[in-house]
Amino acid sequence: MTDKVxxxxxxxxxxxxxxxxxxxxxAVGAAILTAEGAIITGCNVENASFGLTVCAERTAIQRAVxxxxxxxxxxxxxxxxxxxxxxxxxACRQVLMEFLSPxxxxxxxxxxxxxxxxxxxxxxxxxxxxxxxxxxxxxx
Length: 140
Description:
The protein is of the alpha+beta class.
């Protein structure tokens, strides 16, 4: 494991500890690696009006964009499930797809992380095959 992956996994675990989840009690943390090497974190933030809840992955993307980042290479995600690796929800997968960086390949590396720090490496293209992306809007 590279130092950057170790840090990314560690930061997603730390972000999980900050989750605001009084209704589901299901904490999720995410950490995104920008093309410049910065790590931006997010956690899920629930709301009494359940539809307004924001997932950890989307919180991290929104923070990163608000800080001026548009190009990303990887994300680590963790949650309370101990027995298996869990990926982002469908909505978060689609949001990640919005920010593909062609100069870094056409995919994100995704680290599905357990609470003990172990992880499974996969890619967004595996989690969201045949995805709709911004590229489809430029085709005639």
